[in-house]
């Protein structure tokens, strides 16, 4: 279409050679008409040709898409799509895009210490100051997934396991995690800055849980 719009009829027919066929994703040649497929496309046929190509390519995976829809319907009834927007649907499946520190804090337990521990308070100050992307990476580091489920479906328990003593020796150590248990092992760092730096180093350096 762009070539046609920028050319006269004579220029088009001199320089553009198109026939009533196109190539699918698998390299298979498909004819767009039952007859006259080897006829050269004329200037006035370009719009019809483009429409036929778009129709053919858009229907290329119709059988696979139909099978996908049938399978999806076995798990989630399709009528849900008439009730929820795609954003609401995504949130119910993957969880909210925005990660709430308050929600995570509400499901946290503290093996061997308490929420009043100064190191625990420091961790939450640092975590709440993270960007949403950093919070997402943190979740992946401690849990293997990058979002929290919607609150009504959140049954997991986050365990924050902290070394008791705050010391310069701890400042050199990195936090570790057990993703199967949604558990973080973190030293009791001496400052918020060190806590933030070591947490970011750990969550940005870890690999994917599914990379094996």
UniProtKB/TrEMBL annotation:
GO terms for molecular function: ubiquitin-protein transferase activity. It comes from the Eukaryota. Keywords: Ubl conjugation pathway. The keyword Metal-binding does not apply. Gene3D superfamilies: Hect, E3 ligase catalytic domain, Hect, E3 ligase catalytic domains. Residues 64-212 form the HECT domain. This is HECT domain-containing protein. It comes from Euplotes crassus. The lineage of its organism: Eukaryota, Sar, Alveolata, Ciliophora, Intramacronucleata.
């Amino acid at each position: 279409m762009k070539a046609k719009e920028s050319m006269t009829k004579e220029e088009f027919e001199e320089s553009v050679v198109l026939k009533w066929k196109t190539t699918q994703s698998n390299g298979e040649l498909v004819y767009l008409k039952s007859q006259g497929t080897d006829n050269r496309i004329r200037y006035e046929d370009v719009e019809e040709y483009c429409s036929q190509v778009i129709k053919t390519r858009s229907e290329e995976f119709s059988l696979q898409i139909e099978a996908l829809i049938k399978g999806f319907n076995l798990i989630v009834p399709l009528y849900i799509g008439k009730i929820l927007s795609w954003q609401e649907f995504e949130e119910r499946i993957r969880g909210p895009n925005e990660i709430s520190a308050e929600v995570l804090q509400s499901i946290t337990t503290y093996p061997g210490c308490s929420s009043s521990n100064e190191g625990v308070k420091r961790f939450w100050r640092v975590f709440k100051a993270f960007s949403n992307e950093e919070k997402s990476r943190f979740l992946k580091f401690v849990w293997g997934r990058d979002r929290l489920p919607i609150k009504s479906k959140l049954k997991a328990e986050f365990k924050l396991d902290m070394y008791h003593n705050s010391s310069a020796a701890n400042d050199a150590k990195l936090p570790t995690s057990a993703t199967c248990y949604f558990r973080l092992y973190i030293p009791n760092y001496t400052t918020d800055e060190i806590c933030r730096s070591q947490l970011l180093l750990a969550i940005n350096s870890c690999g994917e849980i599914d990379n094996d």
